[in-house]
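Exercise 7. Predict the joint structure of the components listed below.
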Amino acid sequence: MSSSGDLPKPRLDPMHAKTLRRHILPRLKDRLFAMVGLSATLLSLLVLAVLFMDVLGDGLSRLNWQFITSYPSRKPDQAGILAAWVGTGWLMGLTGLIALPIAIAAALYMEEYAKKNILTDFIEITVANLAGVPSIIYGLLGLGLFVRWMNLGRSLLAGAMTLSLLVIPAVILSSREALRAVPNSIREASYAMGASQWQTVRYQVFPAATPGILTGIILAMSRAIGETAPLMAIGALTYVGFLPGRGLFSRFPINFDCLLEPFSTLPIQIFNWVSRPQKAFSVNAAAGILVLFLITFMMNGMAVYLRYRHQKRSRWS
Amino acid sequence: MAFPLQIRALSAFYGRKQSLYRVQMDIAEKSVTAVIGPSGCGKSTFIRCINRMNDLVPTFRIEGTLLYHGVDIYQSDVTDIRRRIGMVFQKPNPFPKSIHENVAYGLRIHGVKNKKEIDQTVETSLKKAALWEEVKDRLSQSALSLSGGQQQRLCIARALAVEPEMLLLDEPTSAIDPIATARIEELLRELKKNYTIVMVTHNMQQAARVSDTTGFFLMGELVETGPTSQMFTNPSDQRTEDYITGRFG
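Solution:
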């Protein structure tokens, strides 16, 4: 008998309780969890696919040039989304103009300048909470504050300011995240050159965080673009027979009055059509959803692209 | 020999924790002063006091004085001090921009706008840092495409671009490979002809190879300082001898 025969045999007998507990069960659990995770992922993809196919089947035939270039109408086959998508464009542009400077300035201040104390902690928590407030609440706030108290009426401007309330906390959060991701060694390098804090932020930190900030902006805006509830709350119209914002330059330098006109948006138009009894209008709604889908996909695609570029460039460590 | 930097009874505190105890040291002009000692002995804190990088730590404060050409560093304009006393860090930290932009940054923030002048300074700085030949054809490429050793030499070039009188190096070779380290040591021997250099190092052989004067720190105290050759052959303090012979640290 060789000496190796005296060594204890490895006990991988599956019936052995210890083997089961130490080797087989953990592996089984791993596999099980991977399966659960995979099916959860697939489920959400499946839901999206079913939704998309359904809308595509309903609306694709209605999606044509006439549909995109016509005002709403009582006759479903003559109705279109011109006022709605132009309104959405204006609303998003104005929201961006109002919300982004405020949000980015706030993020820069909170991340780069503010001292850490109880007050800034409190502000931080408040901003995080604001980002989670249901959008209808912002709609009611907009109705009370902008439409009634500031007397802006059910206007494009009031709508944009209301959506800004929604966008600002989200952009603050994502921008702070992006700023925090800039390694401290970059700040140190800049300070060690004799740069002031403003120069360090302006020339190093902010440019390095820009792709991340842009990603957050696009995601926040593409969520805001689909918002219906807050705009319903402030009373956006469902029938607009003219283009919003026309005549902006009719008076020097800018004729702000046109921003005080009523407006409609894609989600509002879709909501209106869906709630009508005629079948033809729900086809219109499906076509409108396709357009909204397309815009959102494009914005998300842009965000993904920016993040990809960001990852490629920023090999700091 | 002139001593542009005189450190008098320097104590440093992070909050309540004291990390330097009444350090006295004179830094000689146009030479390399090495600061050695085990981890956590305060050598990085010490070197960061010189260009006031510790000001960025909210709870930090010092006692004592640092006189630079007779003027108290902590009473001077901090951006001016940092321009005149450049710094290179442990981990190469180029900006995520082009090689050219990295070197030009210091000039831009100090108000130089003339493109010709900037280009000229970028070239001479890269030459001084012995990097010009390797990068002259790709100045517009990202600095992050360089190797670790090249990145560190770029950081040296960046610091040299604003024409400092003094260079602080905080373990400049601890994150790069031996060959790149040898190149940087060679570079330091060249640079000390024109610059006053203070270098923190973990590596005692490096201190012996490169420096003229060595200071040994232990638990926040400057135990001993003297000519490098004497420190490594005939130290006067028992603790120094224990450290350099490898009995601890």
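Discussion. Chain B touches chain A through 29 residues (CB under 8 Å).
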